[in-house]
Amino acid sequence: MREFPRLYAGLYRTFHADLPFWRRMAFAANGPILELGSGTGRVAESLAHRGFLVTGIDSDPDMIAWAEQHRPPLTAGALSYVQGDIAELQLATKFGLVLCPCNTLSLLSRDQAQQALRLSREHLLPGGVFAAELAHPRDVRTGGLEPSSPLAAFQDTETGRPVQVSAAQRFNRDQRAAEVEWRLDDLWPDGRIKRHVVRQTLQLWEPAEVQRAMQVAGFAGSSLLGGYRAQNYDEHSKRMLVVAVAP
Questions:
Q1: Distances from the Cα of 183 to the Cα of 45, 164, 178, 206, angstroms
Q2: CA separation for the pair 59, 21 (Å, rounded)
Q3: For residue 86, what is the DSSP state?
Q4: What is the rounded CA–CA span in Å between residue 60 and residue 86?
Q5: What predicted TM-score, i.e. pTM, was given to this entire model?
Q6: Does the pLDDT at position 1 exceed 70?
């Protein structure tokens, strides 16, 4: 769907809650930064604005094109984008930090995610850090998404029209994954509605599985966090993030 990058950018335009976390990780990093699944550049641009050297990689050429077209003025070389599959990562540069926001790892199959973790570790400098947010296992299992109830709304900056967001979710116990259908309704002044549908599969990663995957990928150690303030993860946490260190 060629409209998706524009709609995705509009949906996340006002979401800033995670940015301080990624910035803190960047300030602690010793070396350039790689963002996996960089999308329309929301996180990568935020870091490049603060003087970090950032590379964003995404498999969707339309996302890359949108990010390139809308990139803000930055110091030459501060931000670059690469089209590619994060489960087949093969870059010449070693990084001080590899980050993976917005549940991107949860959208991969387990084999793909394990491969992406191993390759991320191989692309880190000694002592470099990997950090990612995954879909919270509680949210994957229960969902709680009612398609008749809007989750969000935003104004499309290109058309000026409002866009209403809703979703339906079904958990498949056998596959240990949730099938999510996102519905973005473009609301026209004359009452017409143009619906854009995006389907995703969110893998269920339990906390112990995440840390085991980090060990298999070759990281020297890892920890789970329960939010963007780096609080420890527990059963009451609203989010699940993992931070791991390369040997």
A1: 27, 8, 16, 27
A2: 24
A3: G
A4: 11
A5: 0.95
A6: no
